[in-house]
UniProtKB/TrEMBL annotation:
The chain crosses the membrane at residues 20-38, 59-79, 99-132. This is DUF4870 domain-containing protein. InterPro entries: MamF_MmsF. It is found in: Membrane. It is a multi-pass membrane protein. It comes from the Bacteria.
């Protein structure tokens, strides 16, 4: 049976990840602080802290993978018609960008932005859902989460 304090601490753990919108890396810093001070006192808080950090690390990994795919594609579509000699001499001009290149650039950029925004919206709603479940005393495991901490 979980106490009201454990439920509140676990709920704050989930909601502390929303600090990423105000403090850079707050979604890692604040949950780690809360979890580190409370994990030995409650199994419920320990489980919740691990789930929160696993989910945040998973979202970071998904974002890095998205960037690792999108950035090279974007660079290729920009520089596909440019030779190394033009780059060395600095004679690369924007007029070399054809409509086909611009379409490719736009598609890569829009797809990457759409996927990143979708990932962030899903993350936001899952955090709120997890906080509600945790405040009711339920142990919540995030979907799409990789178990880095066990």
């Amino acid at each position: 049976m979980t106490t009201a304090t454990e439920k509140s601490t676990a709920t704050v753990l989930h909601l502390s990840t929303l600090s990423q919108y105000f403090v850079p890396f707050g979604n890692y810093f604040f949950p780690i602080l809360i979890w580190a001070f409370r994990k030995d006192k409650s199994e419920f808080v320990d489980y919740t802290g691990k789930q929160v950090l696993n989910f945040q690390l998973s979202m970071l990994l998904y974002s890095v993978i998205l960037a690792a795919i999108a950035i090279p594609m974007l660079l290729y579509s920009v520089f596909s018609n440019v030779t190394f000699q033009e780059l060395e001499t600095g004679s690369f001009e924007l007029k070399q960008l054809t409509a086909g290149n611009l379409t490719g650039i736009a598609m890569v950029a829009l797809t990457a932005i759409f996927l990143f925004c979708t990932l962030k919206v899903i993350e936001f709603f899952l955090i709120i859902y997890a906080a509600v479940k945790t405040s009711n005393g339920e142990q919540y495991k995030y979907p799409l989460s990789i178990s880095f901490l066990k």
